[in-house]
Amino acid sequence: MSSQSRQNLRAFPRGRKLKVGLIQMSVGPDKAANIKKAVGLCRDAAKRGAQVVCLQELFATQYFCQVEDQALFDLAEPVPGPSTQPFQALAAELRISILSSIFERRAPGLYHNTAIVLGEQGQIAGRYRKMHIPDDPQFYEKFYFTPGDLGFVAIDTPYAKLGPLVCWDQWYPEAARLTALKGAEVLLYPTAIGWLPAEKEQFGAKQLSAWQTIQRSHAIANGVHVVAVNRVGQEGPPDGIQFWGHSFVCDPFGEVLAEAGEGEEVLVVELDLSRTEDTRREWPFLRDRRIDAYGGISQRFADEDA
Fold first, then answer.
1. How far apart, in whole angstroms, are the C-alpha atoms of residue 129 and residue 75?
2. Alpha carbon distance 178, 128 (integer Å)
3. What is the predicted pLDDT for the residue at 14?
4. H helices of the chain, where?
5. Model confidence pLDDT, tens digit, residues 98-157
6. Is residue 13 part of a domain?
């Protein structure tokens, strides 16, 4: 065996395993109580062997984007801040990595929907600011969040290279691809998605299926594991969003390894990271990409007169 071949084998060791914890929880109006609850659930995941724990999108508060209200900007906080520091201490105590999702106050009048990866020593290992910002009925995020300006990132931890993305990002194959090309071994999507009660009977099952299908397709197309963590419970007015839960993990072949229901649940799932190498050898999508022909992807649309 050549020296280069031996180096490649060391670069892709067989049998690398990662235990990931998914914290699917309901959220009340008391921010401090939500943080305390999330800390307890993270402890539970770590006791069950989780090395990386992922919280849901904006876990510390109810989903405030259902209305446009300038007073709600007061929920934002700096990094580090009240929603970050307890998890920094927890990560250092338990020697785990935690992906936390916060409403970041970057400067007066400048706010982001931000995912923070905390390292096993409690340090901020990296951050990702949500790139795709929706503006739909009761998902009025453009009112609150400035689009991310850090690009797509892969963040090193002792356990795996993590690719944080956030909720609406999960519908975009470009986001998953660029994060995977950064070297991410696992794509993690903190999420707040659910049904509008008036639409659930007609569209509910289709919406949930589409949400799962698009993320499984990212796993297949990029040969990586995907972790999606959603919240549960109905929030806001009587017609407020009913968050559907169904947090799940799928492998690089798109097979669902574990899925939660529609109630509070902590999933701890073991991932075989060597599946990335195996799957990409069987389905060499990265090898066969025509990078010389994709210039049009940076255009909004191929207008006929262009």
1. 17
2. 13
3. 64
4. 3-11, 31-47, 85-94, 173-181, 197-222, 275-282, 285-288
5. 999 999 999 999 999 999 999 999 999 999 999 999 999 999 999 999 999 999 999 999
6. no
Judged by DSSP in three states, 280 sits in helix
Our count of domains for the chain comes to 1
Quote the tokens at residue 186. Answer: 């696992």
Within-domain flag for 267: yes
In a domain, 2, yes or no: no
Please indicate whether residue 130 is annotated as part of the active site: yes
Q: What is the percent of the chain where pLDDT is above 70?
A: 94
More confident residue, 129 or 306: 129
CA distances from 100 to 23, 24, 109, 205 (A): 11, 13, 22, 29
Domain span at residue 278 reads 18-298
Catalytic residue among 42, 65, 77, 130: 130
- Is 167 noted as a catalytic residue in this protein? yes
Q: 18-52: per-residue pLDDT in tens? A: 999 999 999 999 999 999 999 999 999 999 999 99
Q: Cα-atom radius of gyration of the chain, to the nearest Å?
A: 19
Q: pTM for the complete prediction? A: 0.93
Cα four-point dihedral sign 236, 242, 34, 153: negative
Tell me the longest C-alpha to C-alpha distance in the chain: 67
Q: Annotated catalytic residue: which of 19, 37, 54, 57?
A: 57
Measured between alpha carbons, how far is 223 from 280 in angstroms, rounded to an integer? 6
146: domain CATH number is: 3.60.110.10
User: Which of these is catalytic: 167, 235, 250, 265?
Assistant: 167
Domain-located, residue 306: no
**Of the candidate ranges 71-75, 102-106, 187-191, 238-242, the one whose mean pLDDT is the lowest:** 238-242
